[in-house]
Design goal:
- The chain is α/β, with parallel strands linked by helices.
- It has two domains: 5-89, no CATH class; 109-256 and 274-314, 2-enoyl-CoA Hydratase, Chain A, domain 1 (Alpha-Beta Complex), CATH 3.90.226.
- 38% of the residues lie in helices and 21% in strands.
- The protein is built from nine helices and 15 strands.
- The protein has helices at residues 19-27, 29-45, 49-65, 75-87, 101-114, 143-156, 175-184, 230-240, 301-314; strands spanning 5-9, 12-16, 94-96, 122-128, 132-137, 162-166, 192-197, 202-206, 219-223, 245-248, 257-258, 262-263, 269-271, 273-279, 295-296.
- The strands form four sheets. The protein has a six-stranded mixed beta sheet with strand order 4-5-6-9-10-15, with helices on both faces. A four-stranded antiparallel beta sheet has the order 8-7-14-11.
- Strand 7 and strand 8 (202-206) form a beta hairpin.
- Helix 1 (19-27) packs across helix 2 (29-45) and helix 7 runs parallel beside helix 8 (230-240).
- The longest helix is centred in the N-terminal third of the chain and has 17 residues, at 29-45.
- It is elongated.
- It starts with a strand and ends with a helix.
């Protein structure tokens, strides 16, 4: 099958037909079909309409240039390469190679099962010298799995004079758990920290009812370049409200929210960012730019965090 396809980007009709594209279509027609369908899905669903058109144009160009020709017969490698390219536009894109129905459905169950071997992501809770509480969370598991453990952690730190929340290498996870954590460390009068913007609407998202023990003492949040998504939400929200100082290095910059995967030809699927948070204080988010720390962490971020908390106590 030779692809003589018309597509529309920013109102301009362009015919996709060249010697190279004909050769690639003949040599790897399935891959080309999948890429065209991916581009169309991105243009129709991506949260930012103009950016969606720009990303779609890039995908069409990748298809026509034979960018992934060498992985024509390796679906896993093809998916990996396309994901890396899509990540340059938005870290929440996720392109999946065909897989068995059972393995796809079992992914969530496998993730939930992993919680048992990692204390539901609550990896360390202790009180440091000087009565400074310390809590390290490696990922945000679903709220029903982590509520009891997170409650115990907050109870342990109730007597501390300040807290260091360590979110380094926390790539995110369950948004509800992150929201419960933010709710726990804010005053009751703060009901909303962000709105959710979709292609044609903006809607406020109130924080959940308080379920964890309240903690309103001074805080520092540790982050690094592997801090992402829901973990960035926690750091960015507390920083924007002046509730906590951020120490470390700039975070990954993945703010967009995804919907259910869209099925593509021959069993491929793609998850597309369909919404993005808008902080009520900054009017923006951490998408691409990341959370910018108030203080660099240097060689010992924990030491820097304790210095900042000491400065707060001195005043």
């Amino acid at each position: 099958m030779i692809y003589k396809r018309l597509y529309k980007i920013k109102g301009v009709h362009m015919q996709v037909l060249s010697v190279l594209s004909v050769v690639m279509a003949l040599s790897c027609p399935t891959q080309t079909e999948v890429l065209y369908a991916t581009a169309e899905a991105v243009e129709e669903n991506y949260v930012d309409i103009d950016e969606g058109r720009r990303i779609a144009a890039a995908i069409f160009q990748w298809a026509d240039s034979g960018r992934y020709a060498e992985s024509c017969n390796d679906t896993a490698e093809f998916a990996d390469l396309l994901n890396k390219d899509l990540d340059a536009y938005d870290g929440h894109f996720h392109f999946e190679a065909p897989t068995s129905k059972s393995s796809s459905e079992d992914w969530l169950m496998a993730w939930r099962a992993d919680a048992a071997s990692s204390n539901a992501g609550i990896r360390e809770v202790r009180v440091l010298d000087g009565n400074v509480g310390y809590m390290r969370i490696s990922t945000f598991y679903p709220w029903d799995l982590v509520e009891q453990k997170l409650t115990s952690a907050f109870n342990l730190l109730q007597g501390s004079r300040a807290m260091i929340l360590d979110l380094r290498q926390n790539g995110g996870g369950d948004a509800s758990t992150a929201e419960h954590l933010v709710r726990a460390v804010l005053e009751d009068e703060v009901e909303v920290v962000q709105k959710i913007r979709k292609r044609t609407s903006v809607e406020a998202t109130p924080l959940p009812k308080r379920e964890l023990p309240a903690y309103t003492k001074p805080m520092v949040v540790l982050v690094d370049r592997r801090t992402g998504s829901a973990a960035e939400f926690v750091a960015y929200s507390l920083q924007s409200l002046g509730r906590a100082k951020i120490v470390g290095s700039r975070t990954g910059g993945a703010a967009s929210l995804i919907d259910e995967p869209i099925t593509l030809p021959t069993g491929f699927r793609i998850s597309i960012p369909v919404a993005t948070p808008v902080n009520v204080v900054s009017g923006s988010s951490w998408e691409r730019r990341g959370v910018v720390p108030d203080f660099p962490g240097g060689d010992d971020p924990l030491f820097v965090a304790r210095l900042q908390l000491q400065a707060v106590s001195d005043h």
